[in-house]
Amino acid sequence: MPGVGVTQRPVGAQDLGEALEAVRNGPQGPRVAAFFDFGGTVVHGFNPPPLPRRLARRSSTRGALTATLLSSIRGARSEGEYERFLQTAMYSWAGVPEADLEELGRQVFAHSVYGHIYPEAWRLVREHETAGHTLVLISSITCYQVRPVAEELGIPHVLCTAMAVQDGVLTGHVEGKPLWRNGKADAVRRFAIAHDIDLTQSWAYADSAADLPLLQTAGHPVAVNPDPRVVLEAAEKDWPVLHFRPRQSPKATDYVRTLAGLAGLLGGALFGVAAKAHTKQRRQMADSMMTYAADSTLRGTGVKIRVVGAENARAPRPAVFIFNHQSQFDIVVLAEVLGTGFTGIAKREITKNPVFGPLMRFVEVTFIDRANTAAAKAALEPVVETLRGGLSVVIAPEGTRSLTPRIGPFKKGAFHIAMRAGVPVIPVVIRNAGEIAWRNSAVVRKGVVDVAVLPPIDVSGWDPSDMDAEVEQVRQLFVDTLLHWPDS
């Protein structure tokens, strides 16, 4: 009999670690597929915008198209709701060039949808990818909404309701059978035949009663954020159940926390400079500024930092520290983890930031113009001398912030600099910073950022003219670390 205060886990409920372990220990290879339902399973929905904004959207063609693309992301919960979506889409999209809808879908994703992808779903996708499984994202809505998410998650196959197109323009009709209820399950069976998939060994993840036929096609059905009908089915058939935490819009407390963090950042920076002003040494003032600014910002925002491999952040020095970049908050994280004795390289656009621009100038960050390759290379020349002078350098080899935890291709500049300066490269893997502050948002949410500082990498023996394989191995270190986080 459970003790007082002990909460029993619902029958069938799994935590994410158990789900990942099940994939890791299950059947491997491309004949095994992982079918991920879209709305409610990979992406959670959106609250309706305020009435004035909805009315403003309806007053323009582009606004109406955007509203239709965005409002159906969650996925329909009933036959009537789905029919209303299809009728609205067919009516409002008729006569619209398909290329326009594809581009608008990408813009809606980059502006809003990216922040609503469940990180738990991202980790499941990566685990199935590591197992060599065939990845499929499936939805009853259209590819204009679904494909940008699939591309970001690295899912090569998309099954969705197709809209009829003639001469590059939507006709206002559905092409074939909509992927609703049995239509979705039928699409999975057709895909399995075409790609030699063994459905008895495959996985399916879905949330709503309308997706029960989909779940029943796979040998490993998993109910994710299930509605009441799916809860009953999962209990009866002993299906695993996962609950993902929805990503909410900022609350009033988040805005207060952000303002407190900004005040801490500016106040800490000023105090840090003043504390070392008597030395008249810019480097000492810069180090003091970063230390106090980072500490004050973390206290103000309530964000905690957990570090694995902290000893690698202290030695060897100098070094080129490379990190995965998903959030503006990364700057604060790096200042807290690396402490003193470093500067950075950043894109010139940051100089326009009224807060970070002046601070980064003071710590002698090198700004590069990414649009001008020749100028960027010339700007990096003094960085080699900076390293030789004993000061470490921090670089984001992806070149820009990513929308999700996905690790993008690495540019080679950081590695060339390290080779020329005769210093090692040290990977700094950051997890959860994108949850604290989304890429296109200045609002900071309370939480924990994990950092793994990996052992230094000796690049002295690399061939500067042929190091693609070595750079890719380093990038893979980031991928592997995010998927299998090291013990503290």
UniProtKB/TrEMBL annotation:
Phospholipid/glycerol acyltransferase domain ranges (all copies): 319-433
Superkingdom to which the source organism belongs: Bacteria
EC number: 2.3.1.51
GO cellular component terms attached to this protein's record: membrane
Keywords per UniProt: Acyltransferase, Hydrolase, Lipid biosynthesis, Lipid metabolism, Phospholipid biosynthesis, Phospholipid metabolism, Transferase
Catalysed reaction equations from the record: a 1-acyl-sn-glycero-3-phosphate + an acyl-CoA = a 1,2-diacyl-sn-glycero-3-phosphate + CoA
Matching CDD domains: HAD_PGPPase, LPLAT_AGPAT-like
A Pfam family annotated for this UniProt entry: HAD
Family, similarity comment: Belongs to the 1-acyl-sn-glycerol-3-phosphate acyltransferase family.
Record text about domains: The HXXXXD motif is essential for acyltransferase activity and may constitute the binding site for the phosphate moiety of the glycerol-3-phosphate.
Listed name of the protein: 1-acyl-sn-glycerol-3-phosphate acyltransferase
Species per Swiss-Prot/TrEMBL record: Nocardia aurantiaca
